[in-house]
Amino acid sequence: MKIFSKLMIATCFIYTIITQAQNNYPQNYFRNPLNIPMQLAANFGAVRTNHFHMGLDLRTNSQENLSVLAAADGYVSRIKVERYGFGNAIYITHPNGYTTVYAHLNKYFDQLDAYVKERQYKDEKWEQDITFQPGQFPVTKGQLIALSGNTGGSAGPHLHFEIRDTKTEECLNPLLFGFAIPDNVAPIISGLYWYDRRFSTYEPGANSVAVKKAGNAYTADVVRVNSPLISFAIKAVDKANKGFNLGVYQAELIMDGKSIYSFSIDKVSYDDTRYENGCIDYTKFTRDKISIQHLSVLPGMKLQNYSNPGLSGIINLQDNEVHQVEIILKDVKGNTSRLTTKVQLGTPVNKINPTGNMVQPNESKIITTQNAEISFSKNAFYDAVNFNAYEEQGSDINVISNTVVLHSPYIPIHDNYTIKIKPNRKLSREEKEKIVVLFDYGSDTDAVKGKWNGDWVEGQFNRLGTVRLVLDNTLPSVLSGWKEGSVVNSSSLRLKGSTKVGDITSFRAELDGKWLRFARVKNDFVYIFDEKCPKGSGLHTLKVTTTNTAGNTNVQTFTFQR
Q1: Res. 406: pLDDT tops 70
Q2: pLDDT-derived band of residue 328, with 50, 70 and 90 as boundaries?
Q3: 114: three-class secondary structure by DSSP
Q4: Which of 215, 426, 506, 549 shows the greatest Cβ crowding within 10 Å of its Cβ?
Q5: 204 prior amide bond cis, ω within 30
Q6: Using one digit for the tens of pLDDT, what is the confidence trace for 370-391?
Q7: Domain carrying residue 283
Q8: Among 246, 136, 125, which residue's Cα sits nearest to residue 183?
Q9: How far apart are CA 88 and CA 80, in angstroms?
Q10: Averaged pLDDT for residues 436-465
Q11: How deeply is 537 buried, as exposed, middle or buried, from its count of CB atoms within 10 A (0-12, 13-18, 19+)?
């Protein structure tokens, strides 16, 4: 009865936290920003690559160009136009201290769209980040502000919707504002894991425990461990009534009737969202595509307002008795799932102290190889890493350094680190201007223009993998989809960009000698015909100038008719 009473108190405590969080924010002040019922494709706090999802992804029935409406009275305070990220976005500031954000839009409302277009032609620049005064573009609740789309870093048509604290710019969980989204489905638990916390959570890593479902509850057999110092982690998803996998809102770990860890995802700033990598098993997420959230604090994880600062979640087993464990998960609506199990210490396995370049959280570190130097800040690591760095020789004639192997791409880095590499041969002044630092982290590559520091070439990155210096004398280019001088009957011109190393860092198009507004869609450049190029206006010359990461510039000319 005593343990049961404590569990009831803990459950009431969680419910009180949820109720208080909801009562701290105005209920029903903001309306649905769409004219169709709100259905979630992703919620606030869902685990994404290197960040928490910072708003709601609202389904648009796989369609584009649905009406997007102002969630409340206010004024357009900012717009963004960018290749990735939000694509086309609107920020509306409201008089109650909040700002709403609407992203991946196809088009702004007419007056705003005309203003942005005029600004782009004036600046001769497609990407924009414009702020406005309160009197420029006031809006009323329910007013049409845009058409939904699939622009920026979007993988399919939807509306990304955020609510921010205007003063702090922290993103707040929109589900705490009382939106009418039906949900009577509790979180689903599919895995339990434990870690030997005498070591780093990265090595030896997660130990899996089978989870069984019994009615509305989850159980696991007695977890017998061979370390007196352990922590747990959970694999789970939340579900709304329409089936998408959503992120877990709130979790609590209870041992022998006492709460030893809890987290809830109420608010996160963009400055801190990368700390997500210290809240999950990053190795499992990047290597195995499995989302596992720690029920403990890693020593380098400094995300504010996420976990209870007084509860570490690290369990110190000082006897061989069987201890009761309960994990409680809740969504914003209060739907609850419980996993009960027991933990017992068996015969401990001796801790083996690793050798090599041990990098600790909260300590800066410089690691060297024969021809490279890597400088990490004190914020770089969330947990200890026995860092392994070495060099490999390559045979590509354009690679002018050894390849530097930086441990593993499955270990996270929180902030930028600097790597300096020595070339393996003497370079002319012209060659030095064409050096690119090429980074490979397994699933993708990145490249930056090399910065010379004496005999070294510097670059900055925030992932681990392999790095090398490349001499790039190749030209970027664009490929048109029409024959020279032919009549283009489509509604747009599309140019496909290409560069051998790195990216196209600069693009400029001129139609008959005047700048023309091309939007960038991933690696393509798209111009939608407008008054700048009317039908029946004869033969046109399109001059396109592109520059790549190395600084190589190419000028191409195309002709067409309308």
Answers
A1: yes
A2: very high
A3: helix
A4: 549
A5: yes
A6: 999 999 999 999 999 999 999 9
A7: 188-345
A8: 246
A9: 6
A10: 94
A11: exposed
